[in-house]
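Session log. Operator J.P. requested a structure for one protein chain; no other inputs attached. Running the standard single-chain path with token output.
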Amino acid sequence: MKAFKKYVICILCLGCFISCVKTDDFDLPEIDDSNFEFEGATTTISSVKGHYNLETEEIYTFQNTGVAIEGYVVSSDEAGNFYKELILQDRASEPTAGIQVLVDDNALFTTYEFGRKIFIKLDGLSLGFNHGVLQLGIQHRGDVVPIPRALIEDHIIRTSEKLPIEPLRVEIEDFSDQYKNLYILLDNVQFDRNLVRDEKIFSFASETTDEYDGIRQLESCESGATTMISTSTFADFRSLLLPQSSGSVEGVLTRDFYDDFYNLVINTPEAIKFDEGERCDPDFLFCGENNSPGIETIFEEGFETITTQRMLETRGWTNKNVSGGSELFKPGTLTGNRHVRISAYNTVENSIEAWLVTPPIDLTTSSNEVLSVDLRSSFDNATILRVLVTTNFTGNPLTTDWTLVEAKIPVGPSNQNAAQFLRSHIDVSCLEGTVHIGFHYQGGSAEKTTTYDIDNIRVTGAAL
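Structure written below.
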């Protein structure tokens, strides 16, 4: 009995001890680096990058140099948007070079915080080119892989210096390789309108079509230039909805996984400072809010009997490439459904500006007209299709005065078989006379290659 009582007392004491431990709230360990002084030769990030030959693409390994690079950390894995990597740039402000360092460890932010100055000892490390950026790591079987955990302290030295990072202001249209792996700021930008409609606001990276990363298009309010924000589907903020207003964004400029286009990777959603800024969407045709198709069909084309581009032309369609190339809208079929398709994918045309214009549509004997159209996107890497209307088509899309209509341009997915048509109903009742509907595609290999399918174009109304 006495033994049993002692056992109970021990259990109660242990319970009290455990209850006093805060398992979900702890302080990060203090690291004493106040007396740090680096002894050895140093070189610049730019000089290190110069060792790699982009023509031969051979991995370069540093040996017997006794040299290190120094720089400031501009990435953070605290929110899960960076994984086993440090992005290092040479200066806290006005940086000139950056590089990606692969590190086989989690929670790097607890030791190598944003703005922390560190040294990287180069001997034993290798320089390679993957996913559009230069990487430092360990060579393994013809590839550059993260520095093993056991070797991290042999190569990465944390200093006592930590500075605020001043993002480098860059315009989207000025993106180039010199800005890769730098912490930049984009000002006066917004997310594409089709991502933040009231009826459907996209999250950062938790849509059913997001496989590894959520790719969301940003556009400049000043120039109209576009780029992408990439968010990992493992990021803590992946389910947050995109802000609908405009403002500034800070992040690391890099390339997408396939090295097709530039994109921005943010450390946290707080890097997006929109502060309810006014959007800068273009002016759209507004005739009213009637979106119910009428009884009378004024024009209709479902492309079921059109099998060649020549047949499009003989039925009065205008199909032109106005950028000097040959890529045009083409009749196609998927799962038995005929439509027309345009894509810059797998072409050699760096710039494609193509127009598909309907035959003339007579509105003189009708009223309350509504335009309906089905659109589908796949292999999406940019929103590059617009729908427009005109009452004075000259026969040349470039010399015609067009008015933009607010069609629902679908976004994603990357998988063609998962893509679905999205239907738009647009009130065009304020138009008079003869009108033409234009579909305008502006893409190019390899950065903007989204595939679009168009089907079931109808104009309905009421007979006068």
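Operator note: The radius of gyration is 28 Å.
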